Amino acid sequence: MMLRSVPVFVALGGLLTIAAACGQGSADHAPISPSAVSTANDSGGQAVQGRQDVQVTMQDACDPATFNAAIGPGTCLRSGGVSFDEFVAQLTKHGAIGAWHFAPPNANVRVGQTFLATNNGGEVHTFTQVADFGGGIVPFLNQLTGEATVAPECNALEPDDFVAPGGTYKEDVEHTGTLKFQCCIHPWMRLEARASTH
User: Fold this and answer.
1) DSSP 161
2) What are 111-146's pLDDT values in tens digits?
3) Whose CB has fewer CB within 10 Å in the chain, the N or C terminal residue?
4) How far apart are CA 198 and CA 51, in angstroms?
5) How many domains is the chain partitioned into structurally?
6) Within the chain, which residues score under 70 in pLDDT?
7) Are 132 and 94 contacting, i.e. CB atoms less than 8 angstroms apart?
8) Domain CATH number, residue 183
9) Helix (H) or strand (E) holding 87
């Protein structure tokens, strides 16, 4: 399911402990140390029988000064962007914030193709296949988005499921039907794909 990975991340435990920073800690999820977060890298990215891989980008617009101050050093590794206060305000008002998204949000794919989800943002994300969309692993963000039920797959994450900025996650398309993916940190980041055999 997960591409072979090379641990490279330096400082991001803050994002995964946002719940604690905001007074919303969960006994079900221990903070993941920065050394446990990894990026994925593979030179053999060609899909079956020459089919093109499905490129997905994970985007965000975090402002490093305010995110790192609110959550912890290394939470955001990019230049400029949306302040943490504005991020919270937009989530409170809309239940989502557009700058945090998967692109494209919808896709038509074929069995045998491979999703290559690359993190072009400044925060850690996941590209997690779920049966149904739901909340993520950060109770504070679930509360702001109104997601009362955590997607069960988000409760079974492993350290190499977390994609650091610049990292890529690989997921093979193995069956037909509707496929759903979400970020288990920012659960409004979603992609829905229709998979067929041709």
Assistant:
1) G
2) 999 999 999 999 999 999 999 999 999 999 999 999
3) C
4) 11
5) 1
6) 1-51
7) no
8) 2.60.40.420
9) helix 84-94
